[in-house]
Amino acid sequence: MADRRVKRRPIAILAAVTAAAAIAASFVPAFPQDPAYHDFADRSRVLGIAHFGDVASNLGFLLVGTLSLAFMAGRRGARLFAVPGERWPFRLYFAGLAAAALGSGYYHLDPSNAALAWDRLALSVPTMALLAAFIVDRIHNGLAALATLPVLLILGAGSVVTWHLSEAAGHGDLRFYALVQILPVLLIPLICLLFEGRHTSGKYVLYMVFWYLLARICELLDRQIDGVLGGLVSGHTLKHLFAAVAAYAMLAMLRAASRTGGIR
Questions:
Q1: How far apart are CA 4 and CA 135, in angstroms?
Q2: Structural domain boundaries in the chain
Q3: How far apart are CA 167 and CA 161, in angstroms?
Q4: Is 110's pLDDT higher than 90?
Q5: Phi (first) and psi of residue 45, to 5 degrees
Q6: Which CATH homologous superfamily contains domain 47-260?
Q7: Could you tell me which of 117, 118, 124, 105 has the C-alpha nearest to residue 42?
Q8: Cβ neighbour number for residue 91 with a 10 Å cutoff
């Protein structure tokens, strides 16, 4: 009974944080996608490909996704997960990275809201799969926990579709999409603090957060970085590369776990 109460308490904390974020989002006035968002600093053209830096830098996601899927399919990856269902959120995360590379590359060829919808739809898969992976690894690995994966995927895709339809109707509303993107950033570190992991490590989550924050800073300083570097590399191009390094932290984490039989 005591163990059950202890487990209920951290789950209640996660539920409270989720509810608080949803309530806070409901009080924010609806806001559309800023048209200036599509005006990136990268003006390079190589081999006839416009915005070459922003397009080609997505190969980092494709590389990490491919290497990770190869690891998951190998002997070390297969031995790491005692319960077969445990590996599916991780597989989907890595497959989603590869899909996100294609979606983002397509968007940066000719940035627009229509193309951005495909970019965000592809990106919603690894974002939601990563949250599901930590839930399955640290909270519960049964069918009930695995059921969170399709639920989260639907929420992620639904947030993109809702935003896109609102833009098409002339009253763009990014609130739901922003909420769905923010929740994993809030919940994954909390899950690491509140629950023990078998294959996941808080240390590697810190690595991921560091590189992710660096990527976001580069995104915000897109033009400034492009200007300082004389147009050689833009901030948004660096954002893609640093975000790929952040994603690689998850592969490094699983490789480390496979060497020890599970992170302790």
A1: 17
A2: 47-260
A3: 10
A4: yes
A5: -140, 115
A6: Rhodopsin 7-helix transmembrane proteins (1.20.1070.10)
A7: 105
A8: 17
- Cβ–Cβ < 8 Å for 202, 193: yes
Mean pLDDT of all residues in 9-13: 88
pLDDT tens-digit series, residues 143-194: 656 788 899 999 999 999 999 999 999 999 999 999 999 999 999 999 999 9
CA dihedral 29, 32, 36, 42 (to 10 degrees): 110
Strand partners, 50: 45
Over pLDDT 70: what percentage of the chain? 94
pTM: 0.90
pLDDT at 119: 96
**Distance between CA atoms of residues 127 and 208, nearest Å:** 13
Dump the DSSP string for the chain: -HHHHHHHHHHHHHHHHHHHHHHHHHHSPP----GGGG--S---EETTEETHHHHHTTHHHHHHHHHHHHHHHSHHHHHH-SSGGGHHHHHHHHHHHHHHHHHHHHHHHS--HHHHHHHHHHHHHHHHHHHHHHHHHHT--SHHHHTHHHHHHHHHHHHHHHHHHHHHTT----HHHHHHHHHHHHHHHHHHHHS--SS--HHHHHHHHHHHHHHHHHHHTHHHHHHHTTTSS-HHHHHHHHHHHHHHHHHHHHHHHHHHTS--
What pLDDT does residue 263 have? 54
pLDDT at 262 over 70: no
Q: For residues 247 and 241, what is the distance between their CA atoms, to the nearest angstrom?
A: 10
Supply the pLDDT for residue 219: 96
- Note the pLDDT tens digit of each residue in 14-26: 999 999 999 999 9
